């Protein structure tokens, strides 16, 4: 169902094609317009309608989207952004409870799972980008299909306090290359006692919860083992 009224929505899902992601001016216009459709204290989910096979192009696209989104006000503590990709979104309909589907071109909704469940809103782009083609220039094989780069078990660690764009990119990449198990070390509270502004840090349990929730957005069924980092040598963990 199409809509053209100007409203804001809680937790909308913006679907974008790979062509749109690779055109910086079009992507910027899409994110700028989408910001106005996101309710305060809510978040925008951005779904790249592409199944990646290699880490390098995925990383490049994630960095581009998160960087541009920050330029237009996302992650200002009132509106947050999460970037999804591939088909994992099909497992998130109930978890995320998206209020509406945002899109710029019809192809971004092609074969979208359970599309009939949602209201849709076509967002308007800035006049100066309307004439640009939604197409990707030749890339000399940089983004050609190849065997997926992956490892049986991948380990990553950090404080993961107030989950920010850098954390999201790191966790997305780590999940992407982990075939069987993703191990995440989260810094325990004992190590953070003397950290500057320690009183403003989120609790260990809350940080773990946020990491788990985010990783579900990337690979819902992936095995994720989270351990508390208890010393600087990282040789003492517990679940």
Automatic annotation (TrEMBL):
A UniProt-annotated Pfam family: CTP_transf_like
InterPro entries assigned to the protein according to its UniProt record, in alphabetical order: Cyt_trans-like, Rossmann-like_a/b/a_fold
GO molecular function, one term: catalytic activity
Organism: Dekkera bruxellensis
Ranges for domain Cytidyltransferase-like: 156-230
Protein name per UniProt: DEBR0S2_17194g1_1
Gene3D superfamilies according to UniProt: HUPs
Domain of life: Eukaryota
């Amino acid at each position: 169902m199409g809509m053209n009224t100007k409203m804001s929505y809680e937790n909308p899902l913006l679907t974008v094609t790979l062509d749109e992601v690779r055109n910086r001016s079009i992507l910027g216009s899409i994110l700028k317009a989408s910001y106005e459709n996101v309710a305060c204290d809510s978040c925008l989910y951005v779904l790249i309608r592409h199944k990646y096979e290699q880490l390098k192009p995925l990383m490049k696209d994630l960095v581009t989207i998160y960087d541009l989104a920050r330029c237009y006000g996302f992650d200002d503590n009132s509106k947050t952004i999460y970037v999804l990709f591939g088909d994992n979104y099909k497992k998130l309909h109930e978890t995320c409870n998206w209020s509406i589907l945002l899109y710029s071109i019809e192809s971004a909704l092609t074969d979208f799972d359970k599309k009939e469940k949602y209201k849709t809103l076509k967002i308007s782009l800035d006049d100066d980008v309307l004439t640009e083609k939604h197409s990707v220039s030749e890339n000399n094989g940089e983004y050609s299909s190849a065997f997926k780069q992956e490892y049986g078990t991948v380990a990553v660690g950090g404080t993961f306090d107030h989950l920010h764009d850098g954390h999201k990119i790191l966790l997305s990449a780590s999940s992407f290359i982990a075939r069987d198990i993703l191990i995440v070390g989260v810094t325990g509270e004992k190590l953070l006692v003397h950290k500057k502004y320690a009183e403003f840090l989120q609790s260990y349990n809350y940080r773990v919860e946020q990491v788990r929730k985010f990783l579900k957005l990337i690979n819902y069924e992936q095995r994720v083992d989270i351990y508390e980092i208890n010393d600087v040598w990282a040789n003492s963990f517990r679940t």
